[in-house]
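REQUEST ID: PR-0412
SUBMITTED BY: lab tech R.K.
PRIORITY: routine
TASK: structure prediction, single protein chain
INPUT:
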Amino acid sequence: MPTDTATAIDSTDTIDTESSDELTQLLQRVEALEAENDRLQAELDSVHKQHREDHHAVARENHDLRKSNEQLRERVDKTEVKDSHLLDDIIDLENQLTDLEASSSTSENQSQDTSARDTELTPIERVAKLGNEGTGIEVTPSIERAVAIYEHWDEWAKKTPRGHVLKDGLKTLLRTATGEKLAWRQVYRAAEALEELSKGRIKFFHHDRHGKMFLEPPLETEHECHSSSVATKETPSANQL
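STATUS: complete
OUTPUT:
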């Protein structure tokens, strides 16, 4: 009997030990599950947080994209307006260029006409008009005095039936016009230069009664020009002046 009791006690102890082990294992599993649950919850919270951050980032990016799109549209609109103004400027420049080319062509034609007229002038007229440059003539003091006589010709010369005559006071007149103290030799050189540069239109010669003098005959008619090409033109006599 005592043996059976001891056996029963041992069997009970064995059952209690096994139950305790199972309980311990269950507790460990519960703890492991709770730890796993905490880990999963932490991961879920992290995912939710990341999702919220991503959502906010997408929202901000979308806002920035909208703003950039609006700015780009404004730039496009401004560029279109600027291009429109630029096109207008190009058209204006083309019109100005056309006007300038037309003006240049007109000026060139006028310049050619002026050059043609200049070539028809006598040397004394060109020097009086253009000065020292553009005539190809070396302007000496004698030529400068000749120009002074030419420029005062209408004032100093007297009209006669044979043309315009200058025979009195030439030295005094020329000295007054130039402000120089001139000798007769210088006056004669200026007179000879005037005759040469006027191509004989204004003649300088010695008159038997009046001495040295100028004569500008009237412009010849076509008949007179033809006659002068046949006969040699003579210097007028004293009775003709």
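NOTES: Helices lie at 2-120, 123-130, 141-151, 153-156, 170-178, 184-197, 222-230.
REVIEWED BY: pending
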